[in-house]
Design brief:
Blueprint (H helix, E strand, L loop, with lengths): L1 E11 L2 E11 L10 E7 L2 H19 L5 E3 L5 E3 L11 E14 L9 E11 L4 E8 L1 E3 L2 E4 L2 E8 L6 E11 L5 E13 L5 E11 L1
Parallel strand pairs: 6-14
Antiparallel strand pairs: 1-2, 2-3, 4-5, 6-10, 6-11, 7-8, 7-12, 9-10, 12-13
Amino acid sequence: MNCGPAIQFYPLGFWRAAVVVFNCNSAGNAGLKGKRAMKIFARLPLVAAFFMLSSAHVWAQSHGPGVPGFLRSDGTFSPIIVHSPRTPSGTWYKGVLKTNLTIDLTSDVPNGAVVTCTLSAGVFGADSWEESGTVQASVSGSTATCTPTVDYSWLLNDAADDQIGLSFSISASTGSGEGRNSEDPTLATIPVPVTGHTTSYTLSMLRL
């Protein structure tokens, strides 16, 4: 038997297969006609993929930080889009609003009642914010004093077109539920103060 090797290449998609063909002739076998062929296929995708990934890793190490992304199966590079965090627009305004209140407690206020004072502030116009602060008043005889305060921090887009509405309320109550309430929904309307400013009001001769 005489055998002779031959190498042929066949396309397999993106890769090619190397085929080794052995053509054998047997002179002593009369029933054998034509050629016998033994084909050994050597496929290369895994080896090629290994070298591609190794080359990409070496290139990334040698070139330092670059565009983040990943390598597709067809060999093309696909970048990953990284979105930067958005920064809120506008300007922060910080300050203090407070009101000094002196209250005359009438005979309608139950003995031993706890008096509380609340200052409310609301921004209206181009922006909208609401905050309030509540404190317990000091009581001496028939007079109560308190200073409710609002420490605000507002992100405003157009402070020049904004206004701040101030209001206060006073309440006196006992553990049994007895009490009285008084409020002024329109203490003042003011423009937005410059940041870091303290705005104070003093009101006396209030009756509860």
